[in-house]
């Protein structure tokens, strides 16, 4: 009742209310030539997929995003991908899409629950599919061009199911990926996650990777915002582990309202805002800013970012960290940022 009254009052007496978010991937903003290629691939035209990746050139962020998007499409229907692999079994892009597809299937097999709520069968399938992804990933590395870091980022992703792989190969894979692209966003995001306390590292290792690349990366680069992600992982592990309640969220809000935390995160956001982020997708980084501003109670700052995200976002996992559901968390905070929810 009070919610609808607030909507009414805002509509008639406040500034115009933006269109409410819709969680529909098919309506998400996309360049016309990218949308055309996606539709052609869905219809079985794998040549359109190859052209889409070739057109990314050496923009590794864009190349990574397009390969990942095609892998997600293959998860729905992989006939076009295996037709491509039969026709061109040594095409680096096709092999890498296959590796990413297997990694995504491994993640789906495990699920997003904590280890205590994951079955032995889920772990077994997670490990088997991750091993398959690593095997294909090694072939993608062998076929990669001399400066392409994307297969090395993908190889790091396959290590979540295998502690031994992390202990034996993490440094080698991570360092080679950094040699190829010193500030690569996905490479450092995966490394930060692998080295967080939740997986195979510690808070200290996680923050060292995130802060190190954020300091080294030029203004505007997405990697300057990786410390935000590290703080989310820290807060979730320390104050909301295996719990998604209002009480746990209040503990996280208290953390993000600490002066020293806000000062650091504002510094990284200022560095990101100070430069050009390039052509790669920005939704994830913008959502990190929105999550931070929402937890910190900074309504005006949150609204600016929600407006940048537009009407058709794909809610990130961090909303689930603190609100228990990605879409519900995003929507609740969107309403709050727009002055409808207290």
Bulk shape: globular
Biggest pleated-sheet summary:
none
The secondary structure category is mainly alpha
Query: How much helix, percentage-wise, in residues?
Result: 55-70%
How far is it from the N-terminal to the C-terminal residue, by CA? Answer: 14 Å
- Tally the helices: what do you get? 18
Number of strands: 0
Helix/strand order: HHHHHHHHHHHHHHHHHH
Radius of gyration: 21 Å
Uncertain segments are 1-6
Strand content: under 5%
Query: What is the overall pLDDT average?
Result: 91
Which helices and strands, and how do they pair?
Blueprint: H1 2-13, H2 32-42, H3 46-54, H4 60-76, H5 79-87, H6 92-110, H7 120-143, H8 150-157, H9 163-180, H10 185-194, H11 203-216, H12 226-239, H13 246-256, H14 259-273, H15 283-295, H16 299-309, H17 317-323, H18 326-337
Helix pairs in contact: 2-3, 3-4, 4-6, 6-7, 6-8, 7-8, 8-9, 8-10, 9-10, 10-11, 10-12, 11-12, 12-15, 15-16, 16-18, 17-18
Organism: Actinoplanes aureus
Protein name: DUF4034 domain-containing protein
